[in-house]
Structure formats: structure tokens, C-alpha cells
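Incident review: delayed structure delivery

Summary: a single-chain prediction request sat in the queue longer than the usual turnaround. Root cause was a stuck worker, restarted by the on-call engineer. No data loss occurred. The affected request and its eventual output are reproduced below so the record is complete for anyone auditing the incident later.

Affected input:
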Amino acid sequence: MTLVAWGNTVEKSLEALAKIDREVSVELFDLRSIVPWDKDAIARSVHKTGRLVVVQEDTENCSVGQMIISHITARPDLWSEMVSPPILVSKANVMIGYNPIYEYAALPDVERIVAAIKRSVATKHERATVEAAVPAAESDERGRRGDRPYTTTPKIDMSKGHAQKITVPIMGEGIRNAKIVSLLKKPGDAIALDDDLCEVETDKAVYPIQSSFAGTMGEWKTKVGDTVDIGQELGTILTAEPSSDGAVKGVAAAAAKPEKISHEDTRHHRGIEPALSPTITRKLSRVIPENTRRSGV
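Output delivered after worker restart:
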């Protein structure tokens, strides 16, 4: 596991490691500086161990320890590798009295650090298991992470239902691409209308991409960290609808009265993709008729 400390807590952490002897394999980091702090080294260690304990003498609220934990857990690549939640050993949110007894009672001690290490090692994240032979090298790595079960991505039968594309919608003027920061649905998950499927980040903000269909999540054709262009296909949703074109046409028909379109107009507009995603178009279809009735048009 990964243990991070600085200042006087380093000495207490060393005493705690001596007390547990060789029960747990621990990588201890002594932060000589907290501004800046060694993010990369700690991130590599957490990626390897899957566990994190931070020890500090500061209060729990608005502290450096909370900053370290927030940074580690905010990274999707590290979050997916953690097998137990991070633990912060710190002074409680209380004032320290003048008596040394009160000071020692409030600050972290060896017993609390040992208890945090054992609690972190005892906590295991439950995952789906599969029957498979484990090579020797992978078995050693598995043991260092606490004998975490292996996972597998379920196979989706694409023949059951129609595959609807998940594409990157238009997100604003001048935005041509975005970065995938999280995939919120897994293959096989049930999808409801307007469910958040994934999140993408641009220069301006983080946007959720919502589902325009109800059905079952198919396969992702991208991964976290990829840069995708506007209109690019991200994955598929299995639905009972024949195609996305029918849904878009149905929304357009509900939003406005049907008009006769000449053969010339049809020829000019044939093959042009709608500017808005089906989700936004469907939401606007409930707003436009209401505004029309209120204005008396």
C-alpha cells in the first residue's frame, strides 16, 4: 500500500511500520515539499498498490491531505485501480489545549496509523470474477494488490435490437473536439431516455453526453483520455427502434405543423444532418409549441 506523510508524522509512520513489521508491504513517501508536491511519484505508487493512506497533523477540513486524496481520486486511471477507499489520518476538527496530554490526544499517534493501514488492507473492492488461468507474473502482481479478482467486459449480442450510434453533439461555437474524461455506462447497462452516458471536456467546461434513446448499452468505441471530434461515433445503444432517423423525424413533426415541401426543396435538404442532437430537439419540441400558444400565433 502507499503511505504519505510529512513533518513529524514521518517519524510516527516509521514507528507504525516497525510495529506491523512485515505484515504489509508499504511504500512510505516523505513529502519534503507540499507546494509543489510529488504528484507523479505518488500516482505511480497508487497505481501499483491500489491503496492510499495519508497522515498529517493538520485538521481534516481544507487540508493538504484532503488535497492529495482529491487529486488521486479525481484521476479516472487511478480511481479504477484502487481496491479500497483512501484513508486520511489527521487531527480532528478541534482546538488543541495547552496541556500536552490534550495535544497528544488530538494529534495522530502510532496506534491510529497502524489501525488505518490494517483497515485499508482489510477492505477489498468487490468485482465480478471469471474463471481463467492466471500466469505466474500476473499472480504476483495480483497478490501485491490484495488478491483482487480479475474483471472482464461482458459480450453484448448485437443481433438483439437495433444499434443506435452515440455521437459527439455540437457543444458551442468554435468547439471542434473534446476529451473523454469518463464513461458512465458499461456494456449491458440499462439506458433510459436522457441518461448521462459519458463526460467530455473542452477548453470551456465539462459536458455530459446524454442518451437520445432507451435501451441497453452496447459497445464503446473510445476510451478515457481519447480526443474526439464533433460528430464522431463514440459507441452504440441497442434499442427496439429501427433507426435514429425515425426518432428525429417524429420530433420534428411534433414541433411544427406539416408543410408541403416542393421537390426542389427536398433535393436541397436531402442528406443534411440535423444541427441539434435528438435529445435537444426532443426537449425543444415541448417548449416551442407552448411558446407559440402563449404568443397567440
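Verification: The domain at 162-242 is CATH 2.40.50.100 (OB fold (Dihydrolipoamide Acetyltransferase, E2P)).
Action items: add queue-age alerting; document worker restart procedure.
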